[in-house]
């Protein structure tokens, strides 16, 4: 059976030593969020994840969800676990106290997301969807809707969904058919079919609040004619309890590759009563609030699954004995050496460690930037942080989930044939990790978002939020000879990324297909360079600690330096390959006639 231990030592290192999360408590509204308080909250989060959620991960995977006549039952134990989650107030951890939240920084919410996805990704999706819906309602709904729905969602009594996809429209939402007809009382009647709706129906909460994209009768064609509606499963009574059943039903649930314990539903809306969120025809703007938060959340899923797969692979590699080390016997008391002695096994473990620890730093940093966007008194800082988050969102979503899957499958590989056998649990990680590359905008779409929207935005202003501070940190680090073995490769990779940026920008203006062809390589380069920056930051701290007192954690800091070395020597060179591929252009992809395939 797989195991999971929340990596609190590494989390605290990232938060306190690398990101200086103590600065959060100097932001207005976060005065209580001291490092001590955050550490104690995370200890409780670790207990929830290790003791309540993780033990249900395999059983939930094996049992899956049950569907009967429109009713969905989650696997055994999920209701009780959800109750524990609700009692702990976890849903409102990083949400506005005006609606019952605890008002802690989003940074802490990002950590919780990672831990929950490591422990039980299918479970984590129920509150994850609610969280996204809460954000969209708070940002765009009327005060009346906020007052009615948010407190119930923040307390986990009611959950949320996002309903975009239809049978004929996924990526291209402009093709949407679901209709919204206005009523005299200010509400709307929504009719249409949505598919693949995560947590669309289940038995964990007394009401489910759907955020549904639909078209008004006078809607302009395409993406500009979409509006967002709030559609509850049960219409709330005067005293805000679930009342009359609304015209929305679950038609079936999907049988799928992974996240078996999360219900993926066909939702039929039949004159369901709903209320507009945001302005008419501006639904995509409102939905983007939810999608951006969900995209970062999905990135954390990639990290979370990668992190737990890595933990299990390490345990197995230390325990499983096969063959002898090429450099001589390492475990003479045993019939063979543990497989962790073999370079190829090491390569996979090191890659997993370098990715998860680097991504942890980057992911939490993005979380911190969201806190600055919301709380910093200086509007210039808020704008800069917002730009940074917007730029990094497609990178976190796509690079983290591509790598989360890669780490999961490489970790499975370390189990040999046992990795392919269900009871060891490694196949579940591979299955669960796979969807994160597809939903919330498939990763190819993230690459297009980065290249087509984020790079040109405000004449490259978003990019400067990343390039300028990174350049400054590289220049400053060059003065330290002990850092040069890390600074030089990171600076070279950064230079390649800058070159690639100029080329992509030129190509994009001249021939959009060329920019599209370059986009996946470019996003991957971006992810690698961003992690290179994180490793530089982490090495600096580790070297400093080792020189000035590591407080008994010498091995931990030494491991950071070794992992950074692996990253720059073995992973960062992928930037060169990606650059070469990007430079080759799109002709070889596009010259084939469709009939020739
Ligand atoms: C388990 C699961 C849970 C889901 N949960 C939800 C949910 O809660 N709510 C919801 O609304 N949806 C949900 N989805 C739907 C998911 O977001 C879509 O499947 C996804 O957006 C892709 O849409 P599609 O499947 O129609 O693929 P398509 O849009 O048909 O795309 C097929 C392929 O073509 C590529 N492609 C399409 N257009 C372009 C382009 N312009 N450029 C480059 N490549 C392109 C795509 O990247 C993809 O690889 C879920 C799906 C699954 C499987």
Kindly summarize this structure in a few lines:
This protein has 597 residues and is of the alpha+beta class. The chain contains 17 helices and 11 strands. Helix content is 56%, strand content 11%.
Name the helicity range.
55-70%
Q: How many helices?
A: 17
Structural shape: globular
- Oligomeric grouping of the chains: single chain
User: How much of the polypeptide forms β-strand, as a percent range?
Assistant: 5-15%
Helix-and-strand structural type: alpha+beta
Counted beta strands: 11
Average pLDDT reading? 96
Task: List all distinct small molecules, including ions and cofactors, that are bound in this structure.
Answer: flavin-adenine dinucleotide
Structure description:
The structure is a single chain. This protein is α+β, with helices and mostly antiparallel strands and 597 residues long. It contains 17 helices and eleven strands. Helix 7 runs antiparallel to helix 10 and helix 14 runs antiparallel to helix 16. It is globular, with a radius of gyration of 24 Å. Flavin-adenine dinucleotide binds next to strand 3, strand 5 and helix 11. The site of flavin-adenine dinucleotide (FAD) has 18 residues, from strand 3, strand 5 and helix 11.
Which helices and strands occur, and which strands form pairs?
Blueprint: H1 8-18, H2 35-53, H3 57-63, E1 66-68, E2 71-73, H4 78-87, H5 106-140, H6 143-154, E3 158-163, E4 179-182, E5 188-198, E6 207-214, E7 227-232, E8 234-236, E9 242-245, E10 248-253, E11 264-277, H7 283-319, H8 343-375, H9 379-413, H10 426-436, H11 443-454, H12 461-477, H13 484-510, H14 512-548, H15 554-571, H16 574-583, H17 587-590
Parallel strand pairs: 3-6
Antiparallel strand pairs: 1-2, 4-5, 5-11, 6-7, 7-11, 8-9, 10-11
Helix pairs in contact: 1-2, 1-8, 2-5, 5-6, 5-7, 5-8, 7-8, 7-9, 7-10, 8-9, 8-14, 8-15, 9-10, 9-11, 9-12, 9-14, 11-14, 12-13, 13-14, 13-15, 13-16, 14-15, 14-16
């Amino acid at each position: 059976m797989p195991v999971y231990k929340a990596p609190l030592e590494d989390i605290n290192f990232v938060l306190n030593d690398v990101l200086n999360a103590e600065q959060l408590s100097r932001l207005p509204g976060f005065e209580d969020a001291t490092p001590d308080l955050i550490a104690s909250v995370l200890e409780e989060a670790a207990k929830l994840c290790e003791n309540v959620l993780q033990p249900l991960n395999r059983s939930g995977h094996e049992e899956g969800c049950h569907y009967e006549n429109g009713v969905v039952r989650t696997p055994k134990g999920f209701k009780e676990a959800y109750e524990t989650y609700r009692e702990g107030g976890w849903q409102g951890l990083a949400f506005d106290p005006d609606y019952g939240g605890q008002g802690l920084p989003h940074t802490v919410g990002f950590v919780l997301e990672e831990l929950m996805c490591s422990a039980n990704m299918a479970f984590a999706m129920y509150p994850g969807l609610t969280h996204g819906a809460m954000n969209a309602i708070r940002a765009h709904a009327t005060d009346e809707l906020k007052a009615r729905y948010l407190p119930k969602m923040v307390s986990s009594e009611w959950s949320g969904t996002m309903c975009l996809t239809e049978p004929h429209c996924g990526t291209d939402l402009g093709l949407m058919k679901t209709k919204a007809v206005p009523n005299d009382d200010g509400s709307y009647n929504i009719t249409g079919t949505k598919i693949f709706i995560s947590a669309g129906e289940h038995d964990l909460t007394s009401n489910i609040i759907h955020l549904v994209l639909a078209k008004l009768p006078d809607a302009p064609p395409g993406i500009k004619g979409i509006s967002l509606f709030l559609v509850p499963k049960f219409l709330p009574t005067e005293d805000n309890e679930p009342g009359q059943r609304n015209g929305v039903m679950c038609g079936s649930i999907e049988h799928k590759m992974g996240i078996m314990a999360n219900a993926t539903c066909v939702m039929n809306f039949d004159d369901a009563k709903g209320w507009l969120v945001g302005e008419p025809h501006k639904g995509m703007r409102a939905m983007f609030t939810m999608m951006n938060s969900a995209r970062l959340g999905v990135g954390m899923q990639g990290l979370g699954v990668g992190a737990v797969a890595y933990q299990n692979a390490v345990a197995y590699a230390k325990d499983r004995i096969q063959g002898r080390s090429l450099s001589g016997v390492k475990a003479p008391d045993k019939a063979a050496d543990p497989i962790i002695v073999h370079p190829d096994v090491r390569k996979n473990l090191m890659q997993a460690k370098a990715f998860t620890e680097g991504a942890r730093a980057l992911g939490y940093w993005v979380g911190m930037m969201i806190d600055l966007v919301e709380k910093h008194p200086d509007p210039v800082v808020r704008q800069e942080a917002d730009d940074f988050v917007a730029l990094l969102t497609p990178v976190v979503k796509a690079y983290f989930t591509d790598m989360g899957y890669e780490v999961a499958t490489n970790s499975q590989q370390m189990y040999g044939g046992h990795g392919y056998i269900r009871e060891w649990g490694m196949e579940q990680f591979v299955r669960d990790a796979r969807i994160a590359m597809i939903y919330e905008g498939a990763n190819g779409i993230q690459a297009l978002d980065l290249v087509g929207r984020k790079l040109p935005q405000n004449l490259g202003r978003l990019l400067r939020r990343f390039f300028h501070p990174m350049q400054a940190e590289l220049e400053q680090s060059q003065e330290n000879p002990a850092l040069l073995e890390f600074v030089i490769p990171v600076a070279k990779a950064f230079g390649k990324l800058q070159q690639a940026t100029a080329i992509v920008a030129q190509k994009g203006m001249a021939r959009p297909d060329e920019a599209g062809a370059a986009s996946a390589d470019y996003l991957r380069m971006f992810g690698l360079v961003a992690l290179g920056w994180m490793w530089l930051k982490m090495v600096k701290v580790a070297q400093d600690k080792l020189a000035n007192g590591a407080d008994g954690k010498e091995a931990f800091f030494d491991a950071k330096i070794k992992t950074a070395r692996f990253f720059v020597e073995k992973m960062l060179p992928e930037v060169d390959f990606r650059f070469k591929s990007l430079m080759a252009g799109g002709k070889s992809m596009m010259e084939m006639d469709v009939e020739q395939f």
